[in-house]
Amino acid sequence: MSSSATPNSLESEGAPLRITDLTKAFPGGPLAADHLDLEVEDGALFTLLGPSGSGKTTTLRCVAGLETPDSGTIAVGDREVYSSSRRLDVPPNKRGIGMVFQSYAIWPHMTVFENAAFPLTAPPRRRRLDRHEIRRRVEDALSQVQLSGLGERSATKLSGGQQQRLALARALVMRPRLLLLDEPLSNLDAKLRDDMRLELKRLQNDLGVTTLYVTHDQVEALAISDRIGVMDSGRLVQVGTPDEIYLTPATRFVAEFIGASNFVPGEVLGVEGSTCVVRTAAGSVTGECLASVSIGDSVVVSLRPEMLGLTEVSGTDADPTWSGAVRTRAYLGEAVDHLVDLAGGVECRVRTGPGLACAPGVSVRVNLDRARARVFPTISETTPEPPDGSDRSTPPVAPLQAEPPTAPAGPRPDLRAV
Amino acid sequence: MSDSTAAASLGPGLVRGRAREWLTRLRPRHALFLLCLVVVAYIVVGPLFFLTVGSFSTDLGSGGLGQLTLDNYVRAYSDGRVVSLLMNSLLFSGGSALVALVVGTGLAWITERTDTPLRSLFLSMSLIPLIMPGVLFAIGWILLIGPRAGILSTWFRDLTGLSFPLNVFSLPGMIVVAGLHWAPLAYLIMSGALRSQDPSLEEAALMSGAGRFTAARRIVMPLTTPALMSLILLLVVRGLETFEVPGLIGLPAGIEVFSSRIYLAVSSLPSDFGLGGAYAISLLVITAIGVGLYSRLTRETSKYATISGKGYRPSVIRLGRWRYLTTAILVLYFGCVVVLPALAIVWNSFLPFTQVPSWHSLSTLNLDNYRSALGLDQIRRAVVNSVLLSVGSASVVVIFGSVVSWLVVRSGIRGRGVLDQLAATALVFPGVVVGVALIWVYLTIPVPIYGTIWILFVAYLTRYMPYGIRFAMSSQVQVRAELEEAALMSGASAATTFRRVVLPLMFPALAAAWVYVVVVSMSEFSSVVFLWSPGSEVLSVVLFDFWVNGESGPAYALGSMLVLALTVLTAVYQRVSRSTGIKI
Description:
- The structure holds two protein chains of two kinds.
- Chain A is α+β, with helices and mostly antiparallel strands.
- Helix content of chain A is 20%, strand content 31%.
- Chain A contains eight helices and 21 strands.
- In chain A, strand 13 (275-280) and strand 14 form a beta hairpin.
- The radius of gyration of chain A is 25 Å and the shape is elongated.
- Chain B is mostly helical.
- Helices cover 74% and strands 0% of the residues of chain B.
- Chain B has 24 helices and no strands.
- In chain B, helix 3 crosses helix 13 and helix 20 (453-478) packs across helix 22.
- Chain B starts with a helix and ends with a helix.
- Chain A binds chain B through residues 64-66, 79-81, 86-94, 96-99, 101-103, 105, 107-109, 118-119, 122-123, 167, 170-171, 174, 180, and chain B through 1-2, 4-5, 8-10, 13, 18, 21, 480, 482-483, 485-494, 496-497, 500-501, 504-505.
């Protein structure tokens, strides 16, 4: 695995991906891509994140050339592969883009080696590399994904994780300038998924290949990406680094889709710059507001459970704001989730370290000192469906910026069941 | 890289350039689509059109359509026997469907849900009965329970002094023989339906406190109902279109149904194609209604799709002492649908004249029938023709089917649904209708294939093309789109993708389809009986012809050899299909 020490035959010259004004509609359906603009820097890993039906896979397939957009431009490096104004549509097999499919698409009638070698043996014989070079490149690719020595095995004899690696080797063996990954981890079990996530990130870093990654799993996206684009109904609602997306969601949709949030309704009392004070039934809170919010507006305040704290209070404490009783709690191992009933019927989820947990029935005050509350206008935002596959009622552990998080791999407890 | 960009780009946006580009990029697959559409339309719409027009027209004989008239229909329906014709047809098809259904469902339950011994052996042999050609099956049963010299009826009479309770030359006889002939099909469909049912549904009923019987009545049966309904319709339609039993048993017994009435009209001298056409259209309408209902029901079946695919086997019912009975039923069934009729024919093939087995008859065993059968030009021609036609039509059907299925499933061409629908329409054609319709077509249009082997070839294509397309489509669907797309993304052209990915993955299924079409077309009878002529005989019509003309010896010898050949072919088919998991 010392890819940095020896010259790597797979190392590619990455090329930036530029998508301009991409539009794609399916007959009778909503826009899968709605005047989408997107730029991925050279060698970066960019993730399109969104619920199913948000258009992320369609966008990816347009880049691959497997779908034809209605209009727009797609360029890999300085080469346009699709342009509606130039009426240019390079067929997928001429784009030189590597792709890993959700189902891996490993050909069952070929061996592991034959699968990986296919991109090198697909061109007509006279344009192929010579046999030894092909063998060297394929073996290199297989060892990169830790499948060395399995070349002669039938591809169907591989486990799910190995098939995944093989699909990756096949996509990399042609030294693509751009790599497309379509929910590559969604068919793996939780433990393997965590391993492969790191593995993917390492490979991508080592090889320096520009990568467009599609997933509906926010933990995965936060862990792996250089930048994330959150998609909803064919539009990019926010583009940013993982910590930007996580800490400063631009809309309620993003706040709701990424991580878990408490949404507390309220009314704006005062505004100063990008900060405003909001009165809620549980008490008032200061938060960062984005849009042009003015005094008297109805808003919702988004509070991340893991950025709140709990303080036990005696029953005679005078200040009723942000105070209440712990109704129930769920022990998650490295953290404890509390459901707190606050004044005014507000229900609030608070996550603490296991040493700071409070027992059910105990009176507490919710500590907002480091809450970094976000304030969104109430109106005109549709609540999206929960993303498929991820359970909204069970928040992930806060995945933090640079370090890949360790997500709970075991069964996720239901608060109400505790 | 850059030159491929240039090749794919359109140049500086000229209108002419755009048109040319459109042509160069879309022509091959669109031309292919158009070609397939024309071929399918020719095969499906042509016969339908000429049959319809012909049934309303005065004269043919001379070649060409006469004046429009209702005379054919008047003659067909003013005949005093029309009521008995309708009654016989419905009783025959309904009755044989019922027999097949009861036998097939009972067996399916025995092999799928009980611990009866021998059931796995039985399962592995369940395809064998399907290969028995209808002509041979009918002849075999005449030899077994014919009223005077039938082997079983004679033995029964000798043992009990009573006459055998079932005379094969009667409507009940026809119903039983045809019903037994369909039973293997009913068994296959019902055992498939039982097997694909998620056993946890039944287990949930048991856990809710229901007994085995209640669970069967309230859970298993309702879930099986759609399969059952569509099976009934399939069997009724088959009963309407078949000519084997009505021709070999019904005609001598004087019991006429639609198919035999059509045969009589066409084979009379002079041929009355108009009357035949009128009956054929009537039969087609009845069949179309049945198939319409059938496809409607099977569409709704998807609601009941309970296939778990987890490979759990439902717990079987322990029968205790009753399993001796169920084993006996399995053995008896296999004897009735394969062993007895086949043995009756093989036995008689070694005898100079039809005899009931006895010590005395043993001494007369010889190979004369085989010698004379192999010496007859007619039979030699029939063997060659049958092999050529079966192999030829199977090859064309499979290749054409795979192209059509790719166009329908993957090409994305607008209008591909039309192709699919049109091809499916041919499933409606009963064999006798195809036969009569093709006479009309090739006596009218100036394509000189009437009276040659080519008209048989067209008949085979018409009969089996829809099956070829279905087969290919089911295997095409199994080749997931991503497998093709992965090849494209690896830089392979469409042609390379087809050659190195699609074709190898479909090949085993296509091979199975090929063998299947060869086997069934070897025994194709109800359409070719109208179309053959001296020089273009095939095995089934030679068998029929010899039998009807009293030259049964060579017919038995030929039939024995045919059964042997088909058994070998089916063994091959089972090997192939087991490795691909494709079933008929």
